Amino acid sequence: MISEYEDEQDKVFLLRNFIEVRISKKRYEKLAKKYTKEHIISFKSDKTLNHFTQRPLIFITKESGIPLLGHPAFGVIDRGTNLIQVRPVTGCNLNCIFCSVDEGRASRTRRTDYIVEPEYLAEVFDHVSSFKGEGVEAHIDCQGEPLIYPYMEELLERIKNSASVVSIQTNGIFINERKLEILEKYVTRINLSLNTLDERRADFIHGARYPLKHVLRVAEMIAKNTTIDLLIAPVWLPGINDEDIPRIIDFALDIGAGKRFPPLGIQKFIKYKTGRKPKIKRYQTFDDFYRRLQALEKEYGVKLVLHREDFGIERRPRIPSPIKKGERLKARIIAEGRTQNEMLCVVRNRVVSVITEKKTGDFVNFEVKRTKDGLFLGVEI
Fold first, then answer.
1. CB atoms near residue 315 (< 10 Å)
2. Handedness of CA 360, 361, 363, 369 (dihedral sign)
């Protein structure tokens, strides 16, 4: 419902998945006309938080002045292929022990979350898709769980005509029969993170109470009752879920995963500097990992060593980068970044993460240290 308060500037936009966003009166009035009562509740609050992580949340609209190209946590990422990553939100309902970006409420490194208005995100995706040409895949993922994004249906509706394939990476917890009916209208493939078939081990791996039986039912519903392709994507954690990998392969084949694409995408655990590092006695080398996958391929008669061609992914020209590595620039800080001492600046219609101790509103001089894949990092000089 929408309620009125004396202080019109203190409106707050509450998204359906319990993500609160403080907005201006003008923006509130626009959204109140656009969305239904199911989407909006107005109330007074001293906090603007992501319900799942309890972190401050920045609502990125076109009017915010924050570009959607240049940052790894939100917006659109072009890595030089016909697959375009679409990242509408940050945050997660789990605290996985292997998380590469240290997500969830237990995070020690993430300090800010973002959520992008679907209309704005679709507009930028359309721009990049047009540049790429025909046969584009929109891959919806995020630093966390994409299905906490409350405007997924609207986003999918907006991008469906610009993509030949729409895929979503998810832990499956928020999927039910009703949501599956909605997803089936737009989604080609669901990449489902399933890392164990043991309930106790599932709680340990995911750092939270994990509804394993529900996720298994969801996987079966996707495979048997919808036209959506299902790819089950476990992370292999040596010494932790070794015995689960063959069982997951059996499960995927039993339910009929992989109608058009491979049924399984087993991932090697990789230690990242800013990610979580589970206690693993011996990490697999890539040679070990692929050797074990090849042995499982022979045993189960299913393709497990995957290549881009298995998904129709091919090299395509990148959106031209207006920023060069080594450039020295000066820009105003417009928002806080994801981690300590990371702030966001805007340069030539790109967002740049800058490592600095300065605050929002300050100007900062920095040198560009990273430009790979159109993701920009600068360090104060």
1. 10
2. positive
Distance CA 375, CA 137 (A): 20
Angstrom distance (rounded) from CA 381 to CA 365? 6
Which residues make Cβ contacts (< 8 Å) with residue 301, sequence separation at least 6?
none
Q: What is the C-alpha to C-alpha distance for residues 193 and 233, in angstroms, rounded to an integer? A: 5
- Tell me how far the alpha carbon of residue 109 is from its chain's centroid: 17
Instruction: Please write the tens of the pLDDT for every residue from 231-271.
Output: 999 999 999 999 999 999 999 999 999 999 999 999 999 99
Both structure tokens of 251? 């499960």
Angle at the Cα of 194 (from 192 to 200), degrees rounded to 5? 150
Homologous superfamily (CATH) for 63-311: Aldolase class I (3.20.20.70)
Please list the residue range(s) of the chain that carry CATH number 2.40.50.140: 328-380
Q: What is the DSSP string of 268-310?
A: E----TTS-----SSPPPHHHHHHHHHHHHHHHTS--S--GGG
Mean pLDDT (whole number) for 45-54: 67
Cβ proximity of 126 and 70 under 8 Å: no
Integer CA distances (angstroms), 134 to 7, 84, 315, 350, in order: 49, 12, 13, 25
What amino acid is encoded at 237 in this protein? L
For residue 46, the SS3 value is coil
- pLDDT band per the 50, 70, 90 thresholds, residue 48: low
Secondary structure in 3-state letters for 9-29: HHCEEEECCCEEEECCHHHHH
d(CA 208, CA 217): 19
- CATH 3.20.20.70 residue ranges for the chain: 63-311
- What is the domain class of 328-380 according to CATH? mainly beta
Q: In whole angstroms, how large is the CA radius of gyration of the chain?
A: 21
The pLDDT of residue 287 is above 90: yes
Write phi, then psi, for 345 (nearest 5 degrees).
-125, 160
Q: Which residues contact 65 (CB under 8 A, 6 or more apart)?
A: 334, 346
